[in-house]
Amino acid sequence: MKMNLRKITMGLGLSIALVACSKDEEIIVVPVSAITVSNLAADTVTGLGVDGRPQSAGTTTYYSLVDNKVIASTDAASTKWDIAFSSTKILVNSGTSGPGLGGAFVYVGLFDALKTIPADSNFATDNANAASYAIPLGSGKAWYTYDGLTTLISPIAGRVLVIRTATGKFAKIEILNYYKGGVTLPATASVNDKLFKQRYYTFRYAYQPNGSKTF
Amino acid sequence: MKKTPYLFLILVLFQGVKLSAQSRFVKDTLDVSGDSVVVTATRTERKLNNLTVPVTIINAKTIQQNGSLRLTDILKEQTGINLTSGFGAGIQLQGLNPDYTIILINGEPLVGRTAGVLDLNRIALGNIKKIEIVKGPSSSLYGSEAMAGVINIITDATMGAPLTMGLRYGTYNTVDANLETKLQTKHFQYQGFINSYNTDGYSIRPNSNSRVTTPIDRYSTTQQIMWDQSSQTNIVLNTRFTNERIQNEIAVANNGITIFSIGKENIKDVNASATINHRFSKNLKTSLRTYTTTYDAVQNLLTINGLPYRDVLNHNFKRIENQTDWDLSKKIQAVFGVGAVLEGVKSSRYDSEKVRKQNDIQYAFTQWEWKPSEQFTLIGGVRFDQNTQFASAYSPKLSMLYKLNPQHQFRLSVGQGFKAPDFRQLFLDFTNAAAGSYSVFGSAQAQQVIAKLDALGQIGNLFPNYYLLKALKPEYSNGIHFTWDWKINTLSAVSLQLFRNDIKNLIESQQVGTYISGAQIYSYLNIGRAFTTGFELEGKHTINSNWSVNGGYQYLRTGDKDQIAEIKSGTVYTKNSQGYSRLMKLNEYVGLPNTSMHKLQVKINYNSPKGYYLNLRATYRSKWAVNNNNGNEVFDNGDVFASGYVAMNSAAGKSFKNGVSLQAGIDNISNYIDATNLPNLPGRTFYTSIKYQLQQIKNNKK
To answer: What ipTM was reported for this prediction?
Structure first.
């Protein structure tokens, strides 16, 4: 029996390999490769207000996962962008944020381990009027925690943002860092560094252009 | 004799009464030896080397020669003890937080904890006879809080000079002045003590004018009267009063908003006790103790934008207790105790600062000691605490001593300790308007308050935890301590102690719901499980008649058992240096925050017959986790640690025959500073002091 089993599995492996070789050009499902975006500024701080709050211009940085580039804010009302950043707030092109087919949910697990988006996944959309976003705001809610003592933002380990793009395709994102140069600030960093080096996103993402939920 | 009733009356009027029979019959021992008498371990007088549990004694000479002013100064140089910061200076004993060690003065507990921490800088050491530290759960005798151990500060009117004056001046204009008087007649002993401590405070934060330790004026006075009413009966009265004024310059950062405030804090702490001891016969004695204490803290701040902030805490504690010691035979001795406590807190952080929250406790304990031979002692004890606010607690303990021979002694103790839910966990009613308007409600009224808010349509969601809210149970620990003492020869001795504490029912704040606005609502639930374990190795060696060295090392491991289970089940993630998430491995887990794996201290002593002395003390503490920076709520190698450090202190002095003694010292010689993690450690400081003692009179007790 054991011998037979081994032969069968060997045979199977061989046939798959052969198929894969011969049909190389026609294979549709290729694993999408991850792209890393570094230092994406998102409403960076301009100074400290008299109330002690960081001040900024209140801008939003729009990004196309399809084209891997920043989209001008004049195109905010288009389907050119898929995801947008403004300090710790992350928007998807949906609901009150944009006219696209976007949506998102937070997956607990590892980026690489998420091979297929589960069929029963529920993609939420943005509704600024109810302060409800597909990627929830706040410390410990979605992708980061805020430490009141060190005043530092840390991405939560094991969180993947699963995105439905403006055109209804799928992507997954892992936020890697929130500080300039992708370097986590030490707790002892100066107040100035903590203020002016924040709001620079480094993240990696994988985009599946064929419309399937498999990466 | 005629005057004594008046004094008695005055002291009773001065805020109730307090008792302390224990120090009465203690002999003056300058150096700790096996014959030193300990009262804390068994609530009876026992020689150190007849005890069944591990005890450390710090005597007056050590305190004085180390130049220690406040209780924190001397405790931080002990094996297995680390100082904590935040809400004053507390101590961590064998890895357990400050809430789990009970602090006694002459056997009576101090109250006035903020977030579980009792600021030990409140306690001046100028008139202390000795400090006893019992390690391991001791709730079988002391009830709540005696989970990690007991620290008992003992004063004694029966010995010492009739007049002692001391003055010390140091860096940051720190002035400490002591005046102590003692009057002794055949049947009457009195000790009065006044201490004043003033400092400008210090600032070790760069680019900041906010001081880490703020300007402080502290006054404290204690009075002790012992009166031998007859050969069978004596009365002991103790009072203590401290008054602290602290100037605050505070910068509070919350959700990125920093608010600067200035203001004043005033803390008053009054304790009074009266004890009557009566011996019916050689084998039977009893003591009746009454005690009352009030802790009153008021903080008034004015924020930079003109908003006043006021925080009030008033905690009182009254106790009456009877303890009877009955020696059934030479081999069997029993202790019986009953008592009642009335405890109440008023705070601006509760629903009304005018309404006192009350908890009444009744308790009974017994302890049986069986000594079948000179080699072997077995002690069993149990205590039961019943109260009005939370589930009752039952605390057993069993301990034994085996003297193999004069060189080797073995001790083993197994006990259960508990910590009652504190008033904050029961009654807090706090909404932080500055930080997102989240609320925290104590468990005793959370469901009621939230139901009311729900009826008003203010509640958004109720979480499953809301339905789990119920009367809080005390936190329990089971502790095992094994000690091996080896007296190698007349010059050297070592001691090894293995310990483990398993804690369950840890009370933690949990989100129970949200407001309509999405702001969180928290309350307290019994959920956590944790452990601390490790060993302590202590040794001392006398090099010659002048030089000696002693030291201690603690190895400590700690952990949250639920977190360990999560790591094992593969649901805890961490990040690598690039920010990529991956599964966390068990060997990356570092345990509970603020605990260090290693602590080492070494002390070198020089004492000459001519009265000169010199000591050099070094303490090393290894790194400890302070902040989580990968959002997994579990502390691992990738998190933020405070660096390990060495602090060195030295003091030298001379005692002259005419009663004058001089001292000079340097603390933190290497000028180690970590403003973020060690706010209580200033840079290098210097001090010098002079003390005058009127010629020693002989102890009239034999």
So the answer is: 0.79
